[in-house]
Amino acid sequence: MKAYRVGGAVRDRLLGLPGGDRDWVVVGSTPEEMVRAGFLPVGKDFPVFLHPATKEEHALARTERKTAPGYRGFTFHADASVTLEDDLARRDFTINAIAEDDEGVLTDPFGGRADIEARVLRHVSPAFAEDPVRILRAARFLARFAPLGFTVAPETLALMRGMVAAGEVDHLVPERVWQELKKALEMPRPSAAIALLRECGALAKLLPEVDALYGVPQRPEYHPEVDTGVHVQMVLDMAARLAPGDALLGFCALTHDLGKALTPKAELPKHIGHEHSGVRPLRAVCARYKVPAEFAAMAEIVCREHLNVHRLAELRPETVHDLIARCDGFRKPERIPLLALACEADKRGRLGREEEPYPPGALLLRLHVAAQAISAGHAVANGLQGPAVGEWLRKARIAAIESEKHRD
Ligand SMILES: Nc1ccn([C@@H]2O[C@H](COP(=O)(O)OP(=O)(O)OP(=O)(O)O)[C@@H](O)[C@H]2O)c(=O)n1
Ligand SMILES: [Mg+2]
Hints:
The protein is of the alpha+beta class. It has helices at 8-14, 31-36, 84-89, 112-118, 133-145, 154-165, 174-185, 190-200, 202-206, 208-211, 228-242, 247-255, 274-277, 279-288, 293-310, 317-326, 335-348, 359-372, 376-381, 387-405; strands spanning 2-6, 23-27, 40-42, 48-50, 57-60, 63-66, 74-77, 99-100, 106-107, 120-121, 151-152. The chain folds into 3 domains: 1-118, Beta Polymerase, domain 2; 132-205, Hydrophobic Seed Protein (Orthogonal Bundle), CATH 1.10.110.30; 207-369.
């Protein structure tokens, strides 16, 4: 048996990036031999094992055969006769299909190194089409590597279009879509993922609510980029810049303006009430992908409240209090800085406005902290009980917001 490093670890080292998890492929072995050597099998469907000491993933060299449409229709063929080249051939992208042995010797039958040099994401073989998750992986890798100059090879884009047209995306399990989407939102340029999904037609199938934003105009005085889809892409990248790796903020950015796709044509380019009309499509997205509760709750807050935060300085203290209360921001204080960041990303995610300051963000944090400093304990100390505590708290917090507002 011989083990080779493959996939992300080799790719990232060649790109000069710090290594993440290390995946191995094992050639010339059998499951029985792996177990005898002390490897721990993981899962029953995949010939994958954990190294007894390092716990790194070791997969037997394998080929895959498609048995049914969609993600579940796979059988694996793994035996000692499957070669390293056979295994590399069934992988997704050339840059992921490079193997490295213990001596650092590379096996690169598909030109992965050349594509790393040329900054191209290119599929290895037509077998790419057998796994629709790879469409999402392409999007995620582009979100990660576009800042390094990567683009998708035209023939890979064509293949992805064909896969979407053949209905491959319709069979993706929601959990897998969410998993990959969330990872894309953690990357430095999530807009590249959304744009690629749109280009190949997958966005219209997976997130029609987002796809529908393209071509919808906004008022150029507020939105020099005009197109709502372009705006959302800019907000996504601004969110990734303000809080790198924060998928929760990314999801809020992605969904904050869904209501704009529902504006009646006659009202364009104004979008009066989009913060309310956006809630229904947002909930549809969250239900479809079983989006975690805090993602759904936070995205709904950002959708409903972003206009209020933008004009925070004009709001009366009780209105600010009630806004924070609607966010449950006294019991879940971490929500308020996130709301402030999402609104900042919205404001700066506009053409030519990227470097503008966002004073409402800092103001919201200050007012929240001031209000938060008043606790129920103070009311009880003042001899209050029952509903009187809540009333006192509200008044005291409003007063705190008022005095903080006028502090300078
Ligand atoms: N649907 C998939 C999933 C994985 N792979 C192959 O398995 C490797 C490891 O997969 P994974 O760890 O998911 O991706 P990495 O490329 O290692 O990227 P990351 O840094 O995100 O782990 C990939 O490089 C690729 O060769 C594939 O071909 N098709
Ligand atoms: Mg990996």
